[in-house]
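ok so I'm stuck.
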Amino acid sequence: MGFAEMFDKTDEAITGWMARYGLIIMRIGLGIIFLWFGALKFFPGLSPAEELVRNTVYFVDPDLFIPVLAAWEVLIGVGLIVGRFMRVTLLLLFLQMPGTVLPILVLPEVVWTSFPFGLTLEGQYIIKNLVLVSAGLVLGATVRGGKLVNS
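replied:
not stuck anymore, here's the structure
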């Protein structure tokens, strides 16, 4: 067996494994993020996002809003980890995401060091949600039986 054939067989095995397990790993990983970040919000002072949330939703009592947000995120996380009720879980995820970009509009001075490229740590925390939304879209494509294939 030549190098090209060996490379092709190895490549096929690796991409086959990725096609078989990639969605599951992504779903569980995304679930862990939501479960973890949500659970932190139940404990005042433990979530690094708490102050950002308090300052962003100043029009709602944060002592009421933060536990609701925590429960919402934990519910998303559990739904993703368990892999059941994916339509509802992804709906909750997509309904929550617009709120995560609200600081860009409400608190731009907290998001940017130098607009439009210099992001603060909070800004990076917000922008990374593009990956979470993308993962949600990919998972959403599977609720009717879609899957990755190794072709």
